[in-house]
């Protein structure tokens, strides 16, 4: 028997392809969902684009029948492989004891009506509170799981392996070694540990086919006035400095150096090595705490407030023993003036083609998988994309550590030769920051 999936508005806004995730069953959209999509369709952001996309898909189905009675999803599924249907339901009788002036309750009441009729109905929503209401009414409720990853098994980008001492000796002698006793992904690092002497170790990067190349520590000694403070940072710098690794994901708690490493290698590749024409830095505009509201000034003035964490890191990179704060600020202003550094809102990235640039997306855990796909697909020839963030610090109300775009990209791209990833675990900002990250 086909199941009935009643979808909440936030599922469609999260992924406009979501109706096809249930194409072997019957998908029901309450009329309130259509009304809410109508409100979002005018937005110029990602939610507005997703709303318009799903509305066009639903409108296309009208050519094949009545949405009131249900239309086969095969008409919009790839290859026509779908056995279920899409139906829009208008009735939301108040027989569940909820306040019908609340749109979420009207949507939920549709699922409850099917439940009362004895149908096998599942309510799908990314709003945890609405799922709690559904459970209280006896309606099975689920989160949208299509683009979720298991955080307990999230790819870390490196692993320790105990080996025969000859493996390490050969690696140091020839700079490469063949090792096929354990499976490694492309650009995954191995910390080889001598099984007779734990202090005899070596770090090497895998090509995914059993060949490991010794990590060149010399090129990591001074990258734009900084040097790595841990094995993980050395691995990250190696990936960030390699033009062949075109997309790098860095995951770690506050203070592990994600943004600093990305900016330092970006400056190195742009200013010293001339691999890239300029750096483009962006981050989702989602406030921590209550939004302070309207910000005066032009685009650059508004962006300056959201980009302050980036400026803090840049000031640190330019503030050497020979330069004071004024000199560091002047150097940063010069970069902006000469267009070697561009701070851009994510809103303006869609539709662009970005060649020969070093792109850093900070706080990427606040992006949906679809938004991350949109950003990476903008990369033109010779462009490198770096995504940084902490999946445990998410400000987007409809994302969590398992469904955000950063975690999704780490898992989905781990077997690609163009991708490299490192999870940074140790805070290097300061002893105080390390204590806060660990105990608070």
In short:
The chain folds into three domains: about 5-140, Rossmann fold; about 145-215, Archaeosine Trna-guanine Transglycosylase, Chain: A, domain 4 (Roll), CATH 2.30.130; about 215-440, 3-Layer(aba) Sandwich (Rossmann fold). Mean pLDDT is about 90; it is low at about 285-290. With about 450 residues, it is α/β, with parallel strands linked by helices.
Question: How is this fold's topology laid out?
Answer:
Blueprint: E1 4-7, H1 9-14, E2 26-30, H2 31-40, H3 46-61, E3 71-72, E4 85-89, H4 103-116, E5 121-124, H5 128-136, E6 140-142, E7 158-163, H6 165-174, E8 176-178, E9 189-194, E10 201-206, E11 211-214, H7 231-241, E12 247-252, H8 258-272, E13 278-282, H9 299-306, H10 308-318, H11 325-337, E14 341-343, E15 357-361, H12 369-376, E16 384-389, H13 405-412, E17 419-424, H14 431-439
Parallel strand pairs: 1-2, 1-5, 2-4, 5-6, 7-9, 12-16, 12-17, 13-14, 13-15, 15-16
Antiparallel strand pairs: 3-4, 8-11, 9-10, 10-11
Helix pairs in contact: 2-3, 2-4, 7-8, 8-10, 10-11, 12-13
Write up this protein.
The chain has helices spanning 9-14, 31-40, 46-61, 103-116, 128-136, 165-174, 231-241, 258-272, 299-306, 308-318, 325-337, 369-376, 405-412, 431-439, and strands spanning 4-7, 26-30, 71-72, 85-89, 121-124, 140-142, 158-163, 176-178, 189-194, 201-206, 211-214, 247-252, 278-282, 341-343, 357-361, 384-389, 419-424. It has 440 residues and is α/β, with parallel strands linked by helices. It folds into three domains: 4-142, 5'-nuclease (Rossmann fold); 147-215, Roll (Archaeosine Trna-guanine Transglycosylase, Chain: A, domain 4), CATH 2.30.130; 217-439, P-loop containing nucleotide triphosphate hydrolases (Rossmann fold, 3-Layer(aba) Sandwich). The strands form three sheets. Strands 3-4-2-1-5-6 form a six-stranded mixed β-sheet. β9 (189-194) and β10 (201-206) form a beta hairpin. α2 (31-40) runs antiparallel to α4 (103-116), α7 (231-241) packs parallel to α8 (258-272) and α8 packs across α10. The protein starts with a strand and ends with a helix.
């Amino acid at each position: 028997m086909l199941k009935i999936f009643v979808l909440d508005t936030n599922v469609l806004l999260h992924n406009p392809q979501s109706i096809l995730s249930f194409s072997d069953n019957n998908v029901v959209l309450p009329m309130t969902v259509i009304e809410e999509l109508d409100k979002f369709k005018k937005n110029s952001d990602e939610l507005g684009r997703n709303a318009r996309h799903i509305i066009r898909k639903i409108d296309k189905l009208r050519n094949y029948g009545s949405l009131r009675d249900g239309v086969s999803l095969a008409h919009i599924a790839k290859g026509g492989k779908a056995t279920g249907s899409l139906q829009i339901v208008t009735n939301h009788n108040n027989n569940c004891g909820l306040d019908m002036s609340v749109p979420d309750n009207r949507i939920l009441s549709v699922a409850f009506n099917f439940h009362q009729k004895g149908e096998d109905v599942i309510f799908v929503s990314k709003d945890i509170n609405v799922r709690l209401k559904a459970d209280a009414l006896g309606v099975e409720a689920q989160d949208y799981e299509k683009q979720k990853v298991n955080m307990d098994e999230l790819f870390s980008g490196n692993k320790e392996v105990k080996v025969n001492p000859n493996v390490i000796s050969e690696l140091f002698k020839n700079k490469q070694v063949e090792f096929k006793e354990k499976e490694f992904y492309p650009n995954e690092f191995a910390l080889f540990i001598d099984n007779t002497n734990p202090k005899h170790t070596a770090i090497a990067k895998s090509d995914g086919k059993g060949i490991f190349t010794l990590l060149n520590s010399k090129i990591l000694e001074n990258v734009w006035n900084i040097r790595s403070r841990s094995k993980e940072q050395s691995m990250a710098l190696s990936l960030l400095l390699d033009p062949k690794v075109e997309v790098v994901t860095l995951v770690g708690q506050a203070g592990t150096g994600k943004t600093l490493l990305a900016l330092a290698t970006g400056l190195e590749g742009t200013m010293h090595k001339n691999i890239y024409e300029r750096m483009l830095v962006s981050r989702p505009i989602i406030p921590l705490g209550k939004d302070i509201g309207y910000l005066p000034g032009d685009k650059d003035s508004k962006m300056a407030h959201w980009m302050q964490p980036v400026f803090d890191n840049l000031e640190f990179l330019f503030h050497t023993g020979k330069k004071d704060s004024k000199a560091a600020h002047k150097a940063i202003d010069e970069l902006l003036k000469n267009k070697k550094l561009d701070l851009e809102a994510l809103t303006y990235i869609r539709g662009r083609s970005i060649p020969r640039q070093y792109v850093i997306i900070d706080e990427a855990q606040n992006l949906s998988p679809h938004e991350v796909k949109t950003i990476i697909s903008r990369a033109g020839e010779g462009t490198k994309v770096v995504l940084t963030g902490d999946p445990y610090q998410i400000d987007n109300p409809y994302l969590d550590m398992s469904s955000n775009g950063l975690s999704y990209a780490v898992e989905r791209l781990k077997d690609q030769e163009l991708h490299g990833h490192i999870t940074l675990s140790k805070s290097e900002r300061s002893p105080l920051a390390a204590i806060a990250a660990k105990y608070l």
